Amino acid sequence: MSKIEKSTTNKATKKDQPADSLGSNKKESVPAASSSYDLLKLDNQLCFSLYVCSKEIIKKYKPLLDPHGLTYTGYIILLALWEEDNVNVKELGKRLYLDSGTLTPMLKKLESQDYIKRTRSLNDERNVYIELTEKGKELQKEAIHIPENLICNLDIEAKYASGLLQGLHQMMRILDSENCPME
Question: What is the CB neighbour count within 10 angstroms for residue 157?
Fold first, then answer.
């Protein structure tokens, strides 16, 4: 059993299990704690579990992306551009939840690899547009199997992965909304 599985299978009772909906504000969705300090245990932190999973999944991408000279961040930039090409840097950063300090060096690298082209707007030079090159468009055909290979490497069922993805999308919407109460 992995560390992640162990941390999610605590001694919680049925009433302590997370609610079906991520948007639920019910107090019983918090793991049971024998003392108030138990809430501070690392294994009881949603953010830590998400952090570990993210870090470890990104590691699994490395052998799939290395043949193309890509990092995970470069890959998600290309994914976004394959969905919508010729977008400005600000829109791309918003879509990827990346600030310009992270995005700009990655765009320069992708441009040096001839995957993208950056062009300043003729109307307003402050706006830079990102467009796929032919090589960037061709890479999409080669990259089509990367998501499938990743799921195989993770050894999880497609149904479980789909449900997890839906839950994470719901959480992203909650975190994006102005209605996320902080106590």
Answer: 10
* Nearest Cα to Cα of residue 68 among 144, 120, 7: 144
Rounded to the nearest integer, the mean pLDDT of the chain is: 83
- Over residues 109-164, the pLDDT tens digits come to 999 999 999 999 888 888 999 999 999 999 999 999 999 899 888 888 888 888 99
Quote the DSSP letter at residue 97: T
Residue with tokens 């209605």: 179
Task: Report how far apart the first and last C-alpha atoms of the chain are (Å, whole number).
Answer: 35
* Per-residue pLDDT tens over the stretch 78-91: 999 999 999 999 99
- 73 in Cβ contact with 159 (< 8 Å): no
Q: What pTM value is reported for the model?
A: 0.76
CB 55 within 8 A of CB 62: no
Q: Is the dihedral of CA 152, 157, 161, 162 positive or negative?
A: positive
Q: Which residue has the tokens 């690899």?
A: 113
CB 79 within 8 A of CB 70: no
Instruction: Give alpha helix (H) positions in 86-157.
Output: 89-96, 100-112, 134-143, 146-154
Can you read off the two tokens belonging to residue 130? 């990102």
Measured distance CA(89)–CA(128) in Å, rounded = 6
